[in-house]
Structure formats: structure tokens, C-alpha cells
């Protein structure tokens, strides 16, 4: 039986830390001396995607930290002057500044969807601060040039929401009907996962963030090359456009029933220059909630490599 928001907060109180751009809300589980893991969620999900993963990792002595990404839950921008950017460089830098603020020493990063994208960006640009990586959909760094060209019609159909968000009617739809729209995405992206209403509502509460719509709309417009990013982050986007290899140990994952990743991402292996293993699992897009043991096992594998046990 799932816990309510009040029960979760009673057990794991939301903490806050300030970075250059944000006041990030996060939950920390496990002993202060535990080996650190930072798990980042995507759109349209929140930190509860990792509840079961965290419970498994705690049994192996981990300290598991799950931050709310910009535009979600209690995370807020530091001022009205900060651009409500959702671009990958912003979200990758958020992770690095989050680690700095918490003085976390070489954690393992894990994520899916936006969270995998941000974790891959952080690992590619700042590998000296990252011990290892677990990434759903492998090398999940966005090639904006590639995104400006057409995909096969079957995939374009799946990406209907991205096309909707390019128009102002998409902003209006997301603003007025965010819960309905995001529930449709949950159903479409995880066709074999039967979640109950309380599970969805627990995460949907995070979509009420006042910056949710602006961040989501900007993310998908920037991703498709239709809107400029934060000028202060362009130097990072320029590096990412060169597809830098990820030089930290990594386990990458695919869900065999994920309509967003037809055929999987095993061909990304050449973009990982350190120890790397790829796994394909029976799952849809939301692998941490659909197959939490498999996601936790990937984190534990990276940890064992770092410990010299394998």
C-alpha cells in the first residue's frame, strides 16, 4: 500500500539547499556515512518514481538523495530575473551545483527521462565530480541539430506532445489540463504498467509548481531548436553538441516496451569510455517504478565496480 504525501514527509522531511539559480527541495534517506547516490526524475514524474529503488539501496548502506528538478515540487528559482530555462545544460549544471552545495563527494548519479539527460550532461561535462552513472536510454544527451530533422512517422506520432508544446495552444493546454495531459503520457509510455490513482496523484502534486509550465515548454522548444537557451549556458551547449564521451563507469538501461525508444539504445556504447554495461529489461519508459529492483541492481553494480569487487 502506497504512503500518502503526509506520511512520506513525516518519514522523510523535505530539505532545501540554495544554488546560484535555485532553492532545491530534496529528500535524503539513509545514514550520513552511507555511499552517496543522487537519483534524478524526469517529465512528467517526480521524486516518488524512486521510492522503491531507494528502499532497496538503503539495505546496502547507501545514502539516497532525490532532488526535485527545476519547475517541479517545492524547488523554486532564486529570483524573478532567472530565466525559466528547461534546457539540458541548465539541468545538468543544477545537479553539479546541488552536489557542491551539499558537499557530496563523488556520488553515483542515476536517472531516467529528463533525469538521465541531466545526469549524462553532468557526467560528460564534470566527470571529476561524479563516481559513476546509471542512465535510462544510455547516452541521453540531446543532439539539438538531429532533433530539427524528422523522425519516422511512427515516432513522430508518439512525440505528439512535443509538437503541441511548440504552439501557444500547447502552453495553454499544459497550463489548464496538466494532470490530464501528463496522465495520458504515463499511460502511453508505460503500456504494461497498471498504476493506481493514488500513485499518479502523489507525483502529479509536483506539477503544481508555479514554474512547471514555463520550464516544460522551454525545454521542448529549445530541444527542437525553436527557442533560444540561456546565453550564459551556451558554452556548455556548444560542448554537448560535440557529443563528448562519458568517462565514468556506467550501467545503461533500456525498457523493451518503451514506445519512445524503439529498438533501444545499445548502439550508444561507443560514447562511454570507461567501464560500461548495457541491459535491456521488460519495462516501459518509467523503469524505476515499473522495475525498481532492476534499476537498483544497476546502481549496485556500479557501486561494486567502484569498490573493486567486480
UniProtKB/TrEMBL annotation:
Which Gene3D superfamilies does the UniProt entry name for this protein?
alpha/beta hydrolase (3.40.50.1820)
| InterPro entries xrefs | AB_hydrolase_1 (IPR000073), AB_hydrolase_fold (IPR029058), AB_hydrolase_sf (IPR050266), Epox_hydrolase-like (IPR000639)
GO molecular function terms here? monoacylglycerol lipase activity
Report the residue ranges that make up the AB hydrolase-1 domain in this protein. Answer: 36-143
Gene Ontology terms describing biological process: acylglycerol catabolic process
GO CC terms in record: membrane
A Pfam family cross-referenced in the UniProt record is Abhydrolase_1
Can you tell which superkingdom this protein's organism belongs to?
Bacteria
Official protein name in the record:
Pimeloyl-ACP methyl ester carboxylesterase
Q: Which organism is it from?
A: Pedobacter westerhofensis
Amino acid at each position: 500500500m502506497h504512503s500518502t504525501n503526509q506520511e512520506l514527509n513525516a518519514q522523510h522531511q523535505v530539505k532545501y539547499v540554495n544554488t546560484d539559480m535555485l532553492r532545491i527541495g530534496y529528500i535524503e534517506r539513509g545514514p550520513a556515512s552511507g555511499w552517496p547516490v543522487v537519483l534524478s526524475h524526469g517529465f512528467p514524474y517526480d521524486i516518488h518514481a524512486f521510492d522503491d529503488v531507494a528502499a532497496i539501496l538503503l539495505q546496502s548502506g547507501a545514502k539516497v538523495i532525490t532532488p526535485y528538478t527545476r519547475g517541479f515540487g517545492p524547488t523554486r528559482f532564486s529570483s524573478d530575473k532567472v530565466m525559466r530555462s528547461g534546457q539540458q545544460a541548465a539541468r545538468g549544471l543544477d545537479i553539479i551545483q546541488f552536489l557542491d552545495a551539499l558537499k557530496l563527494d563523488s556520488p553515483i548519479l542515476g536517472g531516467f527521462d529528463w533525469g538521465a539527460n541531466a545526469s549524462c550532461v553532468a557526467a560528460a561535462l564534470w566527470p571529476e565530480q561524479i563516481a559513476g552513472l546509471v542512465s535510462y536510454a544510455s547516452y541521453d544527451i540531446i543532439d539539438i541539430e538531429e532533433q530539427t530533422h524528422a523522425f519516422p512517422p511512427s515516432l513522430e506520432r508518439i512525440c505528439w506532445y512535443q509538437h503541441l508544446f511548440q504552439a501557444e495552444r500547447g502552453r495553454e493546454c499544459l497550463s489548464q489540463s496538466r494532470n490530464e495531459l501528463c496522465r495520458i503520457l504515463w499511460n502511453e509510455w508505460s503500456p504494461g504498467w497498471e498504476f493506481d490513482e493514488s500513485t499518479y496523484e502523489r507525483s502529479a502534486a509536483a506539477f503544481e509548481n508555479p514554474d512547471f509550465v514555463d520550464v516544460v515548454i522551454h525545454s521542448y522548444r529549445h530541444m527542437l531548436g525553436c527557442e533560444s537557451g540561456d546565453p550564459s549556458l551556451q558554452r556548455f551547449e556548444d560542448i554537448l553538441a560535440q557529443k563528448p564521451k562519458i568517462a565514468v563507469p556506467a550501467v545503461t538501461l533500456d525498457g523493451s516496451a518503451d514506445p519512445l525508444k524503439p529498438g533501444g539504445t545499445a548502439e550508444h556504447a561507443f560514447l562511454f569510455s570507461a567501464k560500461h554495461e548495457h541491459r535491456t529489461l521488460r519495462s516501459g519508459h518509467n523503469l524505476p517504478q515499473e522495475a525498481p529492483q532492476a534499476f537498483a541492481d544497476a546502481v549496485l553494480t556500479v557501486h561494486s565496480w567502484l569498490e573493486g569487487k567486480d
